[in-house]
Each structure stands twice: as structure tokens, then as C-alpha cells.
Amino acid sequence: MDPMTSGDVWNQWPAEPQVFLGLGFLVLAYALALTRYRATLVRLGGPVPNWTGPGMQGPEVRGIATAGHVIRFYLGILIAGLSLGSPLHTIGEGYLLSAHMVQHLIITMIVPPLLITGTPAWMVRPLLRWGPVGAVARTVLTPIPAFVIFNAIFLGWHVPAFYELALAQPTVHAAEHTTMLLAAMITWWPIFGTMWEYPRLPYGGQVFYLFIQSLPPTILGALITLTSKELYPTYFMAERISFLSAAEDQTIAGLIMWIPGALGYFTVLTGIFYVWVEKRPASEGESPFRKVDPGRVRRRASANAPATTIVP
To answer: Is 274 exposed, middle or buried (0-12, 13-18, 19+ CB in 10 A)?
Structure first.
């Protein structure tokens, strides 16, 4: 097809209601947590200590949600919706590998930090402290498991056999994007986490963690870029909707994963390094990464911390 006559594809919005149902559920849950169930969530979360970690503005104030929280959360939802429910999804699913790579970077590098930093700790504490969820969270929200889980899922889905299966089966494709997003939330937690029970890394640890995190997309992007093999047959058999050949599209897809994929981590790394060196030396109030005993700290907080006012 002549690229100039393929406008229908570029304007085709996917009819996948599960995406909007999932995002709509998050929007509704967040709104109810801010209003009707705020006092309940604060009560279930219990007392918090007078503690802050690297990059945090100060000790947690229960029941508070600033305009910044709300803006970041809903911006994350909006970007996720545009990525998963716009023509970008249609094009990436069946025509251009490069578009699909852009989509994957959006849902793993842009959306998760916005959702994490947009959700106050008191809002998710009852869930992350609840029985089996808490047991899992104490493991996966630490740096090494977070790194391994995310990269195993992210790299695993790019294995040609799994990638092609996801393209052929909508249910598997939905599972691919869901697991990528959840794993990305986990892997960004040591950098942007908001709960004292699962603290952020100290600044130096964050810098090292992000450097190591930049290596897998660099390696994956280089492999896709430099190979002469047709990795994903769907895109080589697809109708051409742009001036790019299938081989050129694959090369550009690899470059997108290689350069912006690594650059995203390095951008955050640079900001953290600046704060570490220029604004807040590691010796001034920086808490080293450690496994916290939530029960002990809650008891100490309850005994020593002043009462916290819950904002209605």
C-alpha cells in the first residue's frame, strides 16, 4: 500500500475494552481512596515513624494528598491510556516493530514513576502490609529481586517465540503489557518508593542501580539493531504503511530500545547524582538501605511519635 493512502491504519483506535476497564478501575479506586475511604485507609495503615529517606520531602503525613500527587497519578493513567488504547497500539501490534518498542518504553519507563510518586504511602499501605501481599512485597520491593524480576519479564517477552505469541493472541498480548507494567512498578520502587517499610536506596545505591538497570535494554537494543536475521516474522509479512522497509523498521526498533531505553535511566541517574553531590551529601540524614521490621518500627512510632492529624 502506498504510505500516503494508509491513513485508516494511522487513525485506527483499538477496540480493547479491557484496557479502559483496567485503567478506569484505577481511576475510580484512587478517587474513592481520596474521599470516601481516606480515613479508613489511614486507620488501617497505623502509625508511622518520624523518618524520611533519600529524595523524600520529609516524614510522611498520613491522610495528605497534594495536588502534585493527583496530577502525577492521573497523568500516568492518561499516558498509559494513550499508549495502550491509541493508534500507536494498532500500528505496533501489526505493522511496525519500532512503534511497539516505543509503546514498551512508555509503559515501563514513564508510566510507573508517575503512578508510584502519585500515590501517597497511606493509600497503599493497608494492601502492601496485608498478609500474603506483605510477604511478597518484602522480597520483591528490594533492589536485587526487583532488578531480576523486571528484566526476566521484559527480556523474556522479547524472545521471538513469546513475542509472536503475544501478537497472535490478544489475551497473551494483554498479559504481556500487564506483567511489564507491574514488573516496572517493582523495579522503579527502590528509586521512587514512598513507604518507610520498603525504603528507597541511598543516593549512591540509586546511581549504581540505575547504571546496572541501563545495561539490559542496551544489550537487547544492540542485538536487535545489529542482527541481519528477521526476528519477528509478523512485521516482515505485514503490509508496509510507511516508507520504511521491514529490515529498516527492525533496525530503528533496536535503536529505540538501545538509545532512549538506556538514556531514560541515565537521565534519572544524572538528576539523582546532582542531588547527591550538590544538594544533599550522603552524610546528612541519608538512611542506608536496610530491611525494616515494620512491627518494631510501628511500635516505636506509636510510643514516641506525636499524634498525627488526619486531614478530612
So the answer is: exposed
